[in-house]
Specification:
18 strands; 23% strand; disordered C terminus
């Protein structure tokens, strides 16, 4: 569902964006606008494009992206478009990736008017269009089915920007970056420091760390970052665990070592980082086509979790969302079907977890299952199948049957649906940031922000915590 922002909810500086790829075909001159009362017809688009040569995409097509942001994200459904000024700065070439962004600059209370700066940029960061839009913001909350073109997989949402801003406002947290011996790991460490999220402590072989920094061309930036010497990756993981146990660091961040090396040190016999809770991983996803943040768990640690494991996996994810301000998260326990089938163990576990939540064995959440994926995230699909549920179509958390299913689901959302994915390990005494080497910097920043919020808001699982 598409949800709007009313006039009263809008704040100066609020922004929203989406991304589209220009293919250069006729369809781009036929892109519909997001709301009524806007005059950007294909004829006008063709006229606007004439300032550029014929080899480029319809110039005003970029302007329709602005209208999509306004009509579907900010302010969203119910917005009336009063006027728009555009200045075309560069041509849009076929194949360009265009980011359309709007930002609230003025509010006019007399008629709920809102003035927004509007820009479009290409993949090089070059502005191809600037302008100003004037709209009437909706007075009441409205939801529309997400069938509008702006909900396509190429759109981009920035919901985690709010979490990053919240995290930056909190005191710096010291984080051990474990074996950061690649340029990507060093760049991420520097970036989270510059973003005001972590004070990094680099744990690993100093010579390799400095070589990685030199390869990343940021060796001067290491002057303000402490290095804890450890001869190799196994020793770095063990030392990082010691630092977390002693309270010298509040977060562990995976560098360029293997995941099992880091987790092996955390769950080793006698480790004081373990709690009574099963350790699990969450992908905290910002899926443009879905109306709110979405968690997929567990897709990285527990290969074939038992029913007891799934209870802990569920509780870990619920606690994370409650930390982020979701009072009663909705958990959809996924299976291939929405009915209990004795031949399908995932459906039996789902039914059991639903009962366990009803009896307080999973706290602070609405849990329902088995639910197929479509029923979990689509109200329309649930209604068609006659499913009556407080969770169906509104899931905050997707609890998957096993690691393979979860990993495939999460990566499909990332690569096919354009989702940004933060990766966090929960259930230990400190949060662990667990990202892939292929993850973009935005995912690393989002992961760090969530970990910092967990630390500063004091809701990370502790030994003896009710699971």
């Amino acid at each position: 569902m598409l949800r709007n922002r009313t006039f009263d909810e809008l704040q100066l500086g609020d922004t929203a964006s989406l991304v589209r790829v220009a293919s250069g075909d006729k369809s781009e001159s036929d892109t519909p606008v997001a709301t009524g009362d806007v005059d950007l017809s294909p004829d006008n688009a063709a006229e606007a494009a004439s300032m550029f040569n014929r080899a480029v995409t319809n110039g005003a097509w970029a302007g329709t992206l602005v209208s999509e942001v306004l009509g579907s994200h900010l302010p969203g459904p119910g917005t009336t478009y009063l006027g728009q000024e555009f200045r075309f700065l560069k041509p849009v070439l076929s194949g360009d990736t265009i980011t359309a962004t709007v930002r609230v600059t003025r509010k006019l209370p007399a008629n709920r008017g809102v003035v927004l700066d509007t820009t479009c940029s290409n993949q090089k960061g070059e502005q191809i269009l600037t302008g100003t839009a004037t709209v009437i913001a909706p007075a009441r909350s409205i939801e529309w089915p997400a069938t509008h073109p702006c909900a396509s997989p190429t759109a981009r949402s920035d919901r985690y920007d709010a979490f990053v801003r919240q995290a930056r406002e909190l005191p710096m947290v010291r984080a051990a970056i474990v074996h950061p011996c690649s340029p990507e790991a060093i760049l991420a460490a520097v970036e989270v420091r510059e973003k005001g999220l972590f004070e990094p402590l680099l744990v690993g072989p100093e010579a390799k760390i400095r070589a990685a920094a030199a390869a990343a061309a940021i060796d001067l930036d290491l002057d303000g970052i402490a290095i804890e010497q450890a001869p190799h990756s196994h020793a770095a993981a063990a030392r990082a665990v010691e630092l977390a146990v002693s309270g010298e660091v509040a977060v562990l961040v995976k560098g360029s070592l293997h995941t099992d090396e880091l987790l092996g040190a955390i769950v080793a016999p006698g480790s004081l980082l373990k709690t009574e809770r099963r350790i699990s991983h969450v992908f905290a996803l910002d899926v443009p086509a879905y109306g709110k943040p979405l968690i997929v768990t567990d897709a990285a640690i527990n290969i074939q979790p038992t029913l007891d494991h799934k209870r802990d996996i569920c509780q870990n994810a619920v606690d994370l969302l409650r930390t982020l301000g979701v009072d009663k998260p909705r958990v959809a326990v996924l299976a291939a079907v929405e009915t209990v089938n004795a031949k399908m163990p995932a459906t039996l576990d789902a039914a059991a977890l639903t009962v366990m939540a009803a009896r307080g064995q999973i706290a602070g959440a609405l849990v329902d299952g088995p639910l197929a994926f479509d029923n979990a995230i689509s109200i329309a699909a649930a209604r068609i199948k006659g499913i009556v549920s407080d969770v169906a179509g509104e899931a905050d958390i997707l609890l998957v049957p096993d690691l393979e299913a979860g990993n495939m689901l999460a990566k499909q959302l990332i690569y096919f649906a354009g989702a940004t994915a933060a990766g966090i390990v929960l259930g230990a005494r400190v949060p662990i940031v667990l990202t892939s080497r292929s993850d973009p910097l935005s995912a690393r920043i989002a992961s760090a922000a969530l970990a910092k919020l967990l630390v500063c808001r004091g809701k990370q699982s502790m030994p003896g915590t009710a699971a």
